Amino acid sequence: MLIAKEGFSKVNHGGLGSLLNSIQTLFVGMLRIWSIPIVLMLSVASGFTTYYGLSYFILPWIALIITVAIQSIIVICSLEVAGIHWKANRLRYLSVVLSLLVAISASITFSYFKFYEVSQSESIRINRINSIRKDVDTYLAAILLAKGDILKSQNADLDKATADVSQAYFGTHAQVPPAYKNIVGEGPFWKHYNQRYQVKKTQFDQLDKEFHLLDEHIRTLQTSLNHLTVDTEKNFQMAMTGLQEVQLTFNQLATNVGHTIPQAPILMTYTQFVQGVTPSFAMWSDFSLFAFACAAMVDFFTFLLSYRLETTAPGPLSEQEQELAFECLRQFSEFRINDNDELEMIIEKSDFERARRYSDWSRMFAVGFLLSRGFLRKIDERSVEFAPNLYPIVAKRMAEQLRSIKAQSVSSGNGDSKQVPHE
After folding, report:
1. Which of 150, 156, 235, 249 is the most exposed place for a label (fewest CB within 10 A)?
2. Long-range Cβ pairs for the range 380-387 (8 Å, 24+)
3. What is the 3-state secondary structure (H, E, C) of 310-338?
4. Looking only at Cα atoms, what is the longest distance across the chain?
């Protein structure tokens, strides 16, 4: 029972913390490993959009080679930037940053075309529909204006024929011979003008029927245009057929009455209406912030993850590395708790160490090693702070050291007690 309690106590006090630390370390390690395929997938995605836009301007196989080069430069230079310090080699740092900026700019520029096509496809489709509607509405407005002129002219002719018949009946027409002046009745003169009136009225009635038929064609045309977004192919064909019927019907009416015919619009074909967007630099004149943000986001995430892969620790420390780091960190003497609630230590030599010409190579090696692995974070030129993943390592080593000291004291105490009886 006592042994079971001791084992349970060990699990509670030592084993649970070690288990949580192991789980956290494993989780962080898995995230870093998972970052590698994410970077590759982002590079492939960015490469596809870059190739898509670039292939419209140069030969496809050349575009493929350039695309591979661009994505490789982005990943390689991102890793290089993370490993280069500005003060160490300014020329190299600037050259790498410049190469990275050129590659990212080229990638964003040609990726923008694909994202523009995807994001603006619906807007382009709506603009094409509005363009067709505008052209058709302009033509229909011209038809309605001509229709009004025709009806006005025909009404005037019919009114004149009606007046002629009335005047001929009452003998007051200007063309009535003097012998038939003011003679009321349906004489030969009246019959002549009545016949002309009947012809005019028949023509006007027929014209009115044809205009009603034209109105039906216009209504069908407008209905198909209004439903162009629902069933595109069917309604587009109906709209084109309706436009042809309107044009044919009105041209016959206008020709019969001697009226001028308005110019019919030349609309795009169905193939032109549904075709995709061809990438061109004219897309930049109609700038889409959303498309640009999407293109930039992919390359930004590629750069960020590649940069983080180089700057963060690749994995947990081995037992030998933990022992080395603990022993070398013990050689520092100036520690404090900083504003980030982290343990901060001074890494430069103290005045006493400078006076003694103390060699701090081993402990500075440990600092550089832990900085490169992500277990220390640099505050300034003379101080660093502990990263959260370093505390469990130091705590484990301190616990082992305390147990060793306790065991030695117990052992020495037992030795003294055994020597007393012999004395």
Report:
1. 156
2. 381/348, 382/346, 382/347, 382/348, 383/344, 383/345, 383/346, 383/347, 384/344, 384/345, 384/347, 385/338, 385/340, 385/342, 385/343, 385/344, 385/345, 386/342, 386/343, 386/344
3. HHCCCCCCCHHHHHHHHHHHCCCCCEEEC
4. 180
**C-alpha separations of 330 from 35, 325, 327 in Å:** 34, 9, 5
What digits encode the pLDDT tens for the residues 339-393?
878 888 888 877 777 777 877 788 888 888 888 777 887 777 788 888 777 888 8
CATH number for 319-409: choose from 1.10.10, 2.60.120, 2.40.160, 2.40.50: 1.10.10
Going by C-alpha positions, the residue among 287, 340, 317, 306 that lies closest to residue 116 is 287
pTM: predicted TM-score of the whole model, two decimal places: 0.55
Look at the block and give the residue holding tokens 């590759």: 40
Cα(184)–Cα(165) distance, integer angstroms? 12
Closest by CA to 372, choosing from 315, 327, 295, 306, is: 315
Q: Pseudo-torsion of CA 60, 61, 66, 70, nearest 10°?
A: 80
What are the beta bridge partners of residue 378? 384
Q: What is the pLDDT of residue 149?
A: 79
287: phi then psi, degrees, rounded to nearest 5: -65, 135
Nearest to 164 by CA among 174, 178, 177, 152: 174
Percent of the chain with pLDDT over 90: 4
Query: Which sequence spans correspond to the domains of the chain?
Result: 2-119+289-311, 123-274, 319-409
